[in-house]
Amino acid sequence: MTLASPHLDILKEELCSLHAELIRWGLVAWTSGNVSARVPGADLMVIKPSGVSYEDLTPDSMIVTDLDGNVVDGTRSPSSDTSAHAYVYRHLPEVGGVVHTHSPYATAWAAVGEPIPCAITAMGDEFGDDIPVGPFARIGDHSIGEGIVATLKGHRSPAVLMRQHGVFTIGKDAKAAVKAAVMCEDVARTVHLARQLGPVARLGQTDIDKLYDRYQNVYGQHPDEHNGATA
């Protein structure tokens, strides 16, 4: 089946480009990772095909499924993580993008089942909390999705370390979820290196709250700002 929609074509192009970002930032090896996006206004999502190298991905190779993981557009099998992504979209309606990686430093924390403590300002900004650990679950059905939702629902962090597996991130769209995956690996590496130098203390909760509020609500450009505003 083929769905004809200019909006869907744009989403497939964006998703293809975002998979290249996983390589650019060193978050994946071979074909071990994926990005998906919710199709706005429809109970559908777009995800990469299973086992296809990133260099061979094209917009036309992207797979469209419903939110139960059933293929509705595409000629290949979708990612083996499709059920997990679909479960997240069904249970977290605010989520527009999901990313899965096995990025080395963050996955090392997942392997030992330890949350990454919110010990640096960059974590306060981006995550507003420790990056939590989710339960171990086998690949192939929605069990991983259940763990993601149970861990992140009501949590500030857009990233979860699934125990002895890897990283899943969520965002308002696929680009935001990719950014969260990039930043998760960055802080995982930094805090790991810091612990080689000595004990690492978590920031105070008040400081974390203020950092998070500033970054989410003040930092960057805002559409209602006047052109003549100064820094």
Automatic annotation (TrEMBL):
Task: Tell me yes or no: is Metal-binding among this UniProt entry's keywords.
Answer: yes
User: What Gene Ontology cellular-component terms does the record carry?
Assistant: cytosol
Leader sequence segment: none
Instruction: Tell me one GO molecular function of this protein.
Output: aldehyde-lyase activity
Instruction: Give the top-rank taxon of the lineage listed in the UniProt record for this protein.
Output: Bacteria
- Ranges for domain Class II aldolase/adducin N-terminal: 13-192
Q: Among its keywords, does the record have Metal-binding?
A: yes
Q: Which reaction does it catalyse?
A: L-ribulose 5-phosphate = D-xylulose 5-phosphate
* Alphabetical GO biological process terms: pentose catabolic process
The UniProt keyword set, sorted, is: Metal-binding, Zinc
Enumerate the Gene3D superfamilies for this protein. Class II aldolase/adducin N-terminal domain
Name of one Pfam family that matches: Aldolase_II
Cross-referenced InterPro entries? Aldolase_class_II_sugar_metab, Aldolase_II/adducin_N, Aldolase_II/adducin_N_sf
Q: What is its EC number?
A: 5.1.3.4
State the needed cofactors, names only. Zn(2+)
Q: Can you tell me which family this protein belongs to?
A: Belongs to the aldolase class II family. AraD/FucA subfamily.
Q: What is this protein called?
A: L-ribulose-5-phosphate 4-epimerase
Q: What is the lineage of its organism?
A: Bacteria, Bacillati, Actinomycetota, Actinomycetes, Kitasatosporales
